Amino acid sequence: MNRNIRITIIEDDETIRNGYAYLIDATEGYDVVSTYVSFDEAAKKIAADHPDVILLDIELPGVNGIDAIPKLKKLLPQCFVLILTVYESEKLIFNALANGASGYLTKNTPSAKIVESIKEVKEGGGPMSINIAKLVIKSFQKNQESPLSKRETQILELIGEGKSRSQIARDLFIDLETVRSHIKNIYIKLDVNSRADAIKMAKQNKLI
Amino acid sequence: MNRNIRITIIEDDETIRNGYAYLIDATEGYDVVSTYVSFDEAAKKIAADHPDVILLDIELPGVNGIDAIPKLKKLLPQCFVLILTVYESEKLIFNALANGASGYLTKNTPSAKIVESIKEVKEGGGPMSINIAKLVIKSFQKNQESPLSKRETQILELIGEGKSRSQIARDLFIDLETVRSHIKNIYIKLDVNSRADAIKMAKQNKLI
DNA sequence: TAATTAATCACCCTTTTAGGGTGATTTTTT
DNA sequence: AAAAAATCACCCTAAAAGGGTGATTAATTA
């Protein structure tokens, strides 16, 4: 039989912390095994709590939530970290995920949804608030009205992979001079004059 | 007052197509305005349907769903495309999103959830099945046990941006020779001997 | 504390690459 | 028919890349 899901909450606001703790602990199948007000507090004892899921706030005193993630994952490699915050900035989201967070919920999420997300993350899912999902999806979407032609985009992608002109020529079965010609046109269209600037421009405008 | 959400379904399997059409159309606030068996079929008439949301299958006869997305967006720039498919391959998901899809659901999604997702996408959300969300989140996560040091990772990132040794040296306020030294160590650790191979390795192993 | 790793810099060397200029030809697409 | 895209050619110079073989000084970890 499945044992209860063990949860630790790291959140500095007492009201929110106790509110979530009460709500989640009251739910069948969920145990809130510990709560902490900061990462520094948590670091000392959390390993002994062996939680399955950590609910982590971002705006914490001392070490912030984002930086806490890799440290927590080091202490508890099997544990899932679920971010629960008011922030919806793209940078924070991507940094949190890059650092090993398994999900990202905003605090306006209904508590039933939070409880559900804890289970999802435990079962290997990746819960996100819909507004977060929107940002994530947007980050994948390329600019549909690129000034570059197909071939130019293709070549710019290869430049983004660090390939030289001659490598690109070999990859595309075209002449080195043709590649040069395309790159020149790319530079004119993007108004740049180096690979680095072209890549920067391309990423800014989501051309690649 | 809000008018009903207009939906078009493009799906080649008759049973599935009619099933979804019936289910969604029966829901208060949702109108299925048209259904098509392929993009080629749809292309002729879909503009006149002016749907708000298109439910799109990937495995279609003729033009596949992925390639159909940009064409549909061109015909109906304001319209949202929601992918509904059995495929869960990373490549397909990312290509679909890159091509302009606003959400990605797998066909095992309960119909109530599909109906809800249509509304979400209409309201600017980004619905995803939880298994899809997991893949998407995983794609953001970096390898926590990189063989590279912090500085090496930092330099590899700049190489990934197409920067030259001297540019990197300027960016980091260190000597050109120090950059060289780091790059040499990166090459040794990754067992490569060119920028392109280093970037490839780094991306494969999610080091950057 | 001793040993290892990380980060810094130096100078040897050759080949490749990048970027600018200025063309042309042939497909495609509009 | 005109415009855009894709192809190739040859001029040029400076910069960059990659390999080798060192050393010194922090940090960090065993």
UniProtKB/TrEMBL annotation, chains A, B:
Species this chain originates from: Mucilaginibacter pineti
PANTHER family: TWO-COMPONENT RESPONSE REGULATOR (PTHR43214)
Name of the protein in question: Two component transcriptional regulator, LuxR family
Organism phylogeny: Bacteria, Pseudomonadati, Bacteroidota, Sphingobacteriia, Sphingobacteriales
Domain (Response regulatory) ranges: 6-122
Pfam family, one: GerE
Gene Ontology molecular-function annotations: DNA binding
Residue numbers bearing the 4-aspartylphosphate modification: D57
Keyword annotations from UniProtKB, A to Z: DNA-binding, Phosphoprotein
Gene Ontology BP, a term: phosphorelay signal transduction system
Classification via PROSITE patterns: HTH_LUXR_2 (PS50043), RESPONSE_REGULATORY (PS50110)
InterPro entries reported in the protein's UniProt record: CheY-like_superfamily, NreC/VraR/RcsB-like_REC, Sig_transdc_resp-reg_C-effctor, Sig_transdc_resp-reg_receiver, Tscrpt_reg_LuxR_C, WalR-like
Domain HTH luxR-type per the UniProt entry, residue ranges: 141-206
